[in-house]
Amino acid sequence: PLTQEEIAHRRELAKQRHAEKLAASQGKELSEKPPSENSSEVTGNTGDTKEQQLSGQVESVTSKAMKQEADSKESFIAFARVFSGVVQKGQKIFVLGPKYDPAESLHKLSSQCSATNDLPLVPHMTCCTLENLYLLMGRELEDLEEVPAGNVLGIGGLQDFVLKSATLSTSPACPPFTPLNFEATPIVRVAVEPKHPSDMPQLVRGMKLLNQADPCVQVLIQETGEHVLVTAGEVHLQRCLDDLKERFAKVEISVSAPIIPFRETITRPPKVDMVNEEIGKQQKVAVIHQAKEDQNKIPEGIQVDSDGLVTISTPNKQATLSVRAMPLPEEVTKLLEENSDLIRTMEQLNTSLNEDKKSHEINQKTLDRIKEFKQKLEQNLQGRKWRNAVDQIWSFGPRKCGPNILLYNFEGYKRSVWQCLGNTVREVNKYRDFDNSIVSGFQLATLSGPMCEEPLMGVCFTVEKWEINKVGEMTSSQDSGECDAIEHKQNEDTTPASSCTDEVCSANEHQDSSQSVPKSSEKISKHKGEVLLADCYGPFSGQLIATMKEACRYALQAKPQRLMAAMYTCEIMATAEVLGRVYAVLSKREGRVLQEEMKEGTDVFIIKAVLPVAESFGFADEIRKRTSGLASPQLVFSHWEIISSDPFWVPTTEEEYLHFGEKADSENQARKYMNAVRKRKGLYVEEKIVEHAEKQRTLSRNK
């Protein structure tokens, strides 16, 4: 190891080299510039003054240049490690993205190809030249010519080729390294916009740079046109916003309140009520107005059975749907969430099979994964009500890859998401033309639920009946009506000619009838194709989409609805004397302690708890204030959890009335969250402001 003196000596040498390089580059700049007035005046003075003037000029020139550079350009340096070979400056190299697959791409490239050749277009692969190699020395960067294997280095000039991570190789046959996985999942989102609309291009550019610089942030544009940042938590969000303002965009921005995601689901009917009495055994209070309100929620023309089966017809009464909603087991919901990428792949393969495209050979590895996924679903969906459910899966949702399932359970139709496994069914029937409309209606229903327009999670919809009037019947009834109308009109037109002789009349009648036949047949043939597809309610497929969406919503409302909140796992290190305060802060914010253990050999306790993301804002600051900095929390997104309270609950039994009062206006956490989301989205919120205002009693002591 080097001594302190040797280290100091080397540092001085490095500084000298750096200064010499700077001076050389500045000398070049000065020699290129035309001689200024100052230099001509200085010629009569002594050599010392000349040097002083020149050095002053050099300093001012470099400071200006550096300021301009700092304002105009901030370059990215890639942080890399050499696994094999030697990296050299100016080397041409392949940049392989995380999704690059050599098995698919190598047949497009020749066996002797290198990064210097003109290459065909290959997905997730580009070529670049390594402009600068740096030794990362804290705040300083030392230029290097080459770096051998095993070293960590910085590479300049890759910002146009690499988004978050990539593999650099001189061979296209190299499989890419898997991208870095971070424990923290981005969950907290905010909408960002510039204070001055003219700064929008800078903000977009700044967000692009932030996306490259931070591996854990997500930047996206929503359907509404908002620019959204998705971050891991409150502290990370603040850091990203500061970087955006000061480094990347350098514009004033206004930020919305954090948008907390929720999910909607249904549960099995509870066995006990809010005062832990068994439902059905206690005396019901005659709440007539409540029953009336429930009846009014369901409009006319929609039948809801006692077991939750909803039957609804399209506006033109040509199709009838019966849909039932059921909660999925937790294991199945988890399985669907984990395999969302695989489900998306299945959907793409099925689409290409349906469109009769010559799809590329399905990878055997992918087929094995799909089979394994199907087996796991079959293991978890067991029991009488889930019999043959896996084979009857019609679609997943929302966006065809979410944690909800659509099943078909009616005769005369067969179509499955497992087509890619080879069991394709080719049949033409009356349902085949409109089955995509049913799937689209299901996708819309799962994307925004009835409670607060948030996506659904863990719900299974079963279509138990789908009746369509036969196309021939529909068209013939319409056509006969048209024919009658045409004949009636012709009769009216011919009546004024009745004053002529019998022969002429008979001739005219014969002529008219012979002309009317082709006319009417033309009209019939023209309308035949349009009758089923369009009537006064719009295209039939559109009616089916809207009807299916409504059916799913009412089926959902026929079951006990619940909100699901995103949860953080919270790890807190605290000493024994502040434990009570930590627990107080956690219970105030709806937290739940899972585990508490003492670290061996110290007086520090490690507390593991879960905390809703919605309650986490300001949590770290509050816990530090309350414990005088002796406790520090670490928050990581963990899972989705059902909020046990019913957002629509009202007291119905004698015991509930006694316990909660007639208004039942005690805090309902689920309703509070639901109303907050509805307000944010501009939906109707059922709130009572003040029923009976009273004079406010002063709390100050009478003097």
TrEMBL record:
Residues 1-21 have a biased composition (Basic and acidic residues). Keywords: Acetylation, Coiled coil, Elongation factor, GTP-binding, Hydrolase, Nucleotide-binding, Protein biosynthesis, Ribosome biogenesis. Transmembrane segments: none annotated. Residues 332-363 form a coiled coil. InterPro entries: EFG_II, EFG_III/V, EFG_V-like, EFL1, Ribosomal_Su5_D2-typ_SF, Ribsml_uS5_D2-typ_fold_subgr, Transl_B-barrel_sf. GO terms for biological process: cytosolic ribosome assembly. GO terms for cellular component: cytosol; ribonucleoprotein complex. SMART domains: EFG_C. It catalyses: GTP + H2O = GDP + phosphate + H(+). Gene3D superfamilies: 3.30.230.10, 3.30.70.240, Elongation Factor G (Translational Gtpase), domain 3 (3.30.70.870), Translation factors (2.40.30.10). Residues 562-651 form the Elongation factor EFG domain. It comes from the Eukaryota. Residues 36-65 have a biased composition (Polar residues). One of its GO terms (molecular function) is GTPase activity. Residues 1-66 are annotated as: Disordered. GTPase involved in the biogenesis of the 60S ribosomal subunit and translational activation of ribosomes. Together with SBDS, triggers the GTP-dependent release of EIF6 from 60S pre-ribosomes in the cytoplasm, thereby activating ribosomes for translation competence by allowing 80S ribosome assembly and facilitating EIF6 recycling to the nucleus, where it is required for 60S rRNA processing and nuclear export. This is Elongation factor-like GTPase 1. It comes from Baryphthengus martii (Rufous motmot). The lineage of its organism: Eukaryota, Metazoa, Chordata, Craniata, Vertebrata.
